[in-house]
Amino acid sequence: MTVFVEEVPAGAEGCTPGRPRVGELRLHAYAMHRRAVFPLGPLTFFVGRSGSGKSSVLRAYEALARLGGGASVDEVFADPGACVPERARPDSARRRGFRIGCRADGPAGPVTLDLAVQTEPELRIVGERLTGGGLTLLQTALRDPRQRTVQAAWHTGGATAVTRAPLPDDRLGTALLPLRVAGSTDGQRRVLAAAEQMVVALRSVFACDPRPARMRAAVPVGAGRLLRGCDNLAEVLWRTRSECGRRHGLFVAAVREGCVGAVSDVLAEELIDGTVRGVLDRGDGVGTVLGRLGDGELRYLALALVMLTGPGVLEVDAVGEVPAALQTLTVLADGFDRCLDARQARALAMLAGRMCERGHVRLVGASSDASWAAGVPGVSVVHLGRDGT
User: Fold this and answer.
1) Neighbours of 11 (CB within 10 A)
2) pTM of the predicted model, to two decimals?
3) Which DSSP letter does residue 9 get?
4) Fewer CB atoms < 10 Å away: N or C end of the chain?
């Protein structure tokens, strides 16, 4: 398998040495991908023709993130059959499935996670392996198909080399280890450090796909956390404009780069029924409501706002027990440049590059063509062929 990656400049990762982050995706038998290993930098775009597997890479990443957050396989894989390679045939026991995994980098060193998920005859996790420092720290296997558990063994390193116990077959075992491991031996503490690094690296993910048709209407004021489709963009503007003047100023500057005409401010205007709508202040007494903007301008606004905010503003499963200074939010943006012209796409990529360089945000996007990203500092481009390689 050959994957062509345009390299990240040296030192781009050096700005976040203490923050757990996913540095590699491993799709061994998932959708159209076979034995594929994809490196991930702070700003990574998957590029290829329609059908090359770009979207499935991002779906696999999101699935791992949700499992790391404690979701069950039933919640994560709504259509598990679509994850199985098209030509995969059931074995003698009529079983089919797929394999995905990742590597998390951080203070505990490189830690890898590999999952085997069975989709037929029942959806379940039938195998899991967590490794680090040359050791298998956790390994699970399905021993009795009649039971809804897998047999797990994790490294102890004391008088007993490993500890064995059943774990549920519908959850990520790595995410359950902090509840099962006491941390009383060096081996157990090593397991806990690796498991926590993997879970923290996975959990803070925001999958974003702005839907312009739903962003045009006025919305009620609520929690002020941006939804996946950015439907409530006006509500979030209502909150963020008053919360941080500096961040809002950066947002307005970014909007000027991507919208037609003068922009002196981006406002949230309250209507008589209590709802709010977004408005571009043109600086001459005339305001343009967001509902009048084109699809490309609305997607640009939404993605710019995502890059300039964080877990406290976006609808993500933030890792509350980890200090904000050690968290890294990963934005997944399938169809990153959908509806955008090359000028808008490049302006967004430049903004993403500046934010990713600071270390608090990473972005993994997909596009059929990323020529607009040429020369953007810190960007990695992974080119996929028709066979997903």
Assistant:
1) 9
2) 0.91
3) P
4) N
